[in-house]
Amino acid sequence: MNIIVCMKSVPSSETKVKVNSNGKSIDETDIVYEINPYDEYALEEAIKIKEAHGGKVVIITLGAPTATQNIRKGLAMGADEAVHLICENIELADSAIVADLLAAAIKEMEFDIIFCGKKAIDCDNHQVPNRIAQLLGIPAVTAISGLELTPESAKATRNIEGGSETIPVDFPALFSAEKGLNEPRYASLPGIMAAKKKPIDERQVSAGEQLLELISLELPPPKPEGRIVGEGPEAAVELIRILREEAKVI
Amino acid sequence: MAKGVLVFVEQREGVLKSTAFEAVTLGKEIKSTIGGDLAAVLIGSDVAGIIPEISEQGLDKVYIANDEELKFYDGGRYAGIIEEAANKADPAVIIIVASSMGKDIAPRLASALGAGVATDCTAVEVDGGRIIVTRPVYAGKALVKLKFKSDPQVLTIRPNVFPVSRQEPNPPEVIKLEAGDRKEPVERVEHVKSERPELTEASIIVSGGRGMGGPENFHLTEELADELGAAVGASRAVVDAGWRPHSEQVGQTGKTVSPNLYIACGISGAIQHLAGMLSSKNIVAINKDPDAPIFKVATYGIVGDLFEVIPRMVEEVRKIKG
Ligand SMILES: Cc1cc2nc3c(=O)[nH]c(=O)nc-3n(C[C@H](O)[C@H](O)[C@H](O)COP(=O)(O)OP(=O)(O)OC[C@H]3O[C@@H](n4cnc5c(N)ncnc54)[C@H](O)[C@@H]3O)c2cc1C
Questions:
Q1: Which residue does chain B place closest to A127, by CA atoms?
Q2: Cβ neighbours for B222, distance < 8 A, ≥ 6 positions apart
């Protein structure tokens, strides 16, 4: 089974965002980049499949040279090799460009399954997985929380409002991972040592024409100062009165 | 030159989503500036009965694919049908709600049409026929404004953010579409039927965190939710502890919600939790720690023990409901 995992480096979810004076990007000083959490579920699932059915897991990352560190982490978890498409200033670029670049590279590779995360937690676009599948002409099931697999096909389960749906697909196919699919492993010490010797194929790429123009990036307006209604259970009476008479929400 | 607006109106099991009205109302506003028709696409099995319901919104046209085979959502196929409607209507703007279905459809459709998508928009303006959207990035820690360069302009909108206005019924022109080819057949759909509203669609949410103490105490948030007709939510800490299912998790790795009222019980207000609920219109925090970060974003707060406060709230709500 040849499995490709699309993995992005994103600012850690703890990041305090500061906007640069150009009003179009964030200040990257002090930002710690981590593997996009949804991509960790994707990677874990790929490694589990390899362990059960044999084969190879290849990470593909599009991003700045700083992403190398997280690629090594992915290799330490158990991926076999990586392709790093180096592209500067792609962080908030629109997903069409990202998908074009990834799909172009994947087209040259052998694969039965492509895994992505459901979304990247920085730009939150929710588009790259389906765009890649569309460009490659393969079926996709997004935001999966379960996967039952045979060597030729799979049944993927995705949560929907008020329930779940199960979708059978034949390979090659693309899946994007939702939290709950699995519990990502930590890299072991031997894994970390082995990762140092695994190959990373670095290639320079450049972004094409954007379909959306970024006009501005700003911090959200501050929330108006809240009010403490009171302390202890007695405050519940006043709270319910406020919600009913002032806020008019109940 | 593309004109008008095409809106995908979502239904599940023959029932129209309430958020469909939000999308159509926004479509109507955009149409009033850019001109052209306001059209809806409706896909499913046995869904013709929905047409009068959406027509109240002042639609000019409804494209409908009504076929037994379309009973269950099928991403490739649904996107293909909307693509066909788009080819017929040639709209300047396509609006889809950012539901689990909408998030899956939008990029497929856009890729096929060579269009850009702005996802999960929370504000939309029209500037000389071009759409400018505002959408949260970095988990709501920043807002980005984007202007479309592509045609059509595809946007998905965050549920519960855009207002609904109704209009006099206006029988639209109905155009039938074919069911399209089977692409990814859905074998089975399980609906865990719940009496409570779904999180992303609810106007009130009662959420519990680690302060709830254990799974056996969640009857408290459930009781309050039931009195208020609310959905129940949870923080990641309690989901990871196995106290509540992941489908209830609110936050960066859970659901994004925008209810009128979000009641956070025993939730500290970690940045990743805030990411999922910060666009709630009113936030109530119940926490025994006066320094809990949740109070920084709360509209109203009670400093106290939730085991005492929640039962009093339930009692009060019962009283006013008489
Ligand atoms: C990559 C990543 C993604 C994440 N995604 C999410 C996400 O999607 N959603 C999410 O929620 N978290 C997420 N987290 C986790 C987040 O950082 C916090 O750990 C989590 O939100 C804490 O949950 P909590 O507030 O329930 O628990 P705690 O932080 O333990 O807070 C419990 C609160 O309850 C209060 N309390 C205790 N007892 C009582 C009582 N009797 N009465 C009243 N108050 C009481 C305490 O004062 C405290 O403030 C994520 C973390 C990471 C790293």
A1: B107
A2: B206, B232
Alpha helices in chain A, H assignment, sequence order: 37-53, 68-77, 95-107, 128-136, 189-195, 235-241
Calculate mean pLDDT across residues B223-252.
97
Q: What is the pLDDT of residue B169?
A: 74
ipTM for this model: 0.95
Q: Which of A17, A165, A227 shows the shortest C-beta gap to B300?
A: A227
- The pair of structure tokens assigned to B278 is 């910060």
> Would you call A149 exposed, middle or buried from its count of C-beta atoms within 10 A (0-12, 13-18, 19+)?
middle
Residues within 8 A of A (CB atoms), B 121-150 only: 132, 135-150
Query: Is residue B185's pLDDT more than 60?
Result: no
Can you tell me whether residue B24 is helix, strand or coil? helix
| Mutate which: B302, B306, B314, vs A, most A CBs within 10 A | B302
Please report residues of A whose CB lies closer than 8 A to that of B315.
236
CA-proximal residue: ligand 1, atom 48 (nearest)? B268
Confidence of residue B219 (pLDDT cuts 50, 70, 90): very high
Tokens representing A152? 């030729």
First vs last Cα of chain B: how many Å apart? 59
- Residue A4: pLDDT above 90? yes
User: What is the torsion angle, in degrees rounded to the nearest 10, for the CA atoms of residue A98, residue A12, residue B285 and residue A160?
Assistant: 40
**A160 CA to middle of ligand 1, Å?**
24
Token couple for A19: 């906007």
Residue nearest (by alpha carbon) to ligand 1 atom 29: B268
pLDDT band (50, 70, 90) for residue B128: confident
B293 C-beta closer than 6 A to ligand 1: no
Question: What number is the average pLDDT over the span A90-102?
Answer: 85
Residues of B in contact with A231 (CB under 8 A): 302-304
State mean pLDDT over B297-316: 98
Looking at the CA of residue B305, tell me the nearest atom of ligand 1: 42
Minimum mean pLDDT range among A213-217, B245-249, B318-322: B318-322
Contact B312 A37 (CB under 8 A): no
| CB-ligand 1 contact for B307 (6 Å cutoff) | yes
Name the nearest CA neighbour of B249 among B276, B228, B217, B221: B276
B27-66: pLDDT as tens digits: 999 999 999 999 999 999 999 999 998 888 889 999 999 9
